[in-house]
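Fig. S4 source data, part A: sequence.
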Amino acid sequence: MANVELALKDAMNSIDGAIGVALVDYNSGMALGTLGGGTDLDLNVAAAGNTDVVRAKVRAIEMLNLQDAIEDILIALSSQYHLIRPLTSRSGKGLFLYLALDRTRANLAMARHQLRRVESDLEV
């Protein structure tokens, strides 16, 4: 089991094309931990903005009365992929991992697989 800091380092080091990663509380919109990003990607702003995405999708699922859960959400930009993965553990309820990828260097299928692994190793 990895703590937040180790999990974020694991994501940045093991996922090709990773630009930045964050663990976010979607009730408050606050990032509980961030790594990477930089001048082109403010992870705290991204965390707050993607909180709205998660909330909207959760609301839509409830309104549609779907008995299902979000595995991940993909936002494809012209130069980046943004992956949002809500945590499924009881201790991770209300949290999601956010990963920004350089589209030219990333393998989306492998990134999803690796992010799933990071989530399973994460101890919150």
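Fig. S4 source data, part B ends here. The helical segments are 4-14, 43-63, 108-121.
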